[in-house]
Amino acid sequence: MNDENRDLPRPVAATFEPEAHHTWREYVTSRRALVIIGVLLAFALLAWLLTPKATTAPAGGRFGQGGPMPVVTATARSGDMPITLIGLGTVTPLATVTVQSQISGQIQHIAFKEGQKIKEGDPLIQIDPRPYQVALEQAQGALIRDTALLVNAHVDLERYQTLFAQDSIAEQQLATQKALVAQYEGSVKTDQGQIDSAKLNLTYCHIISPISGRAGLQQVTVGNYVTPAEPNGLVVVTQLQPITVVFTLPEDEIPPLLKQLHAGVALPVTAYDRSNTRQLATGTLQSIDSQIDTTTGTIRLKAIFPNIDESLFPQQFVNVVLLLDTLHGATLIPQAGVQRGAPGTYVYVVNSADQTVSVRKVTLGPGDPTNVSITQGLIPGEVVVVDGADKLKDGAKIQLRQNTASAPPGAGHAQHAGPGQGQSGGKRQPRNAPGVG
What is the C-alpha separation between 367 and 334, in angstroms, rounded? Predict the structure, then answer.
């Protein structure tokens, strides 16, 4: 090193202070920890606000933990359960006639009122008969003329036969006279046919009702000129008494139905309105179709009704209930008493000794919207829960909301159901069915 550089000032090195460095790092670390803790506390508060608050179950809650459960019960009874088949039908008249004129002419008179009940043979419309009366007189005149010619030809024929026997005339002249007689005979028959035709046309001028029924709206008025080819006819007459209903049933119902028909049983049929609440008429099954409709899997049937009060109207849609059979002495309970779950179909039977319920598995029979028959698992006189069952389990304590009463007879239409296929009546079933005790 040169001596010249010895006197120059040297750069001062940075002084490292370990204590100050550690203080700054601790400050940054502690501040970051506080931020993280704050964020975690915010998330915890938000989660606490969004979490549903648990409430204390009141006394008498689910499964009767706080006391006996209030329920409604009914007593199983013995009664008759009708087995029926239900279908949708259309009222179809036995006869519907579109009245047409068989001749051409002008209408002179209309003898009915729209919607009027008429009988077979009652006058409906009068067509001007004068043209056909003139035709009749002409045919009668022609008959008189040709008859006279025929008589004269017969006289000549007798004369010619005498002359021919005397060999006074040729055989050809006799043959010509015989042909003339035959010709006049034909003319007489033709004239008679013309007379009969004219008389028939005169009869057609008086249009009468071909059936008994109700007259519809008239399609023509007085003064109209009508022909035998009127597109809408003159009036439509529909028979109302008796009347039929054509309805359909699923093909699965055919075997029990045929069994009853082959036994010669007259099956009653009841017709209800579209809402299925009002009974319209009662009748009997008349016939069954010869084949199944493959597109719908149904078969058509026809029932006949006297329709005395005319409650059934042509082309009306009705609900049909066919009484197939009646199950006598069946054990009946309300549909609301039947529960469905893991055990299958079951009921809650009330133990009168300690006011508890027991789960009882049952087998269902035919039912209607109100009641259902029990074929196994229950006997008449036993009490079952019909309201409040969704809050029960096997062995739960109960309290009656009303006095135990027998199930009332069903007011609805019975439905055909095989064993174990009774109707539930739309009752909501518990989500978790209890096990059979």
Answer: 9
